[in-house]
Design brief:
Blueprint (H helix, E strand, L loop, with lengths): L4 E8 L8 H13 L4 E8 L6 E8 L2 H11 L8 H4 L4 E6 L5
Antiparallel strand pairs: 1-3, 1-4, 2-3
Length: 99
Amino acid sequence: MPMAITSLLDIHLSPDAPADAEERVTSILSQTRARPGFVSADVVRDVTDPRHLVVVEVWESLEADDAYRAWRATPEGASELGELAGGRITLTRCEPTPI
C-alpha cells in the first residue's frame, strides 16, 4: 500500500510581486486541489516575514506527487508561482516515520 507524502513548498514572495500575489497563489492551489491523489493543502505564513509562505500539501503517495510535479512542468500545468517568488521556492518531500 502506498504511503502518504507531505510536500512542503517554501515560498518567498518577491518584493516586486503584485499586490494580489496571495490571491494568485490561492488560484494556483485550486488547480493543485483538483489533481488525482491530492489529499489536502494548507498555507502558513512566517510570523516575522509576511512574504514568506509555506504550502503544506499531502498526497496519497509519492507516485501521485511525482505525477503532479510532472504535470506542473508541462505547458498545461505551468503556473506563475516561480515568477511571484522570483525563483525563491524550495520543495521538501517528507514521509511518515515511526520515531
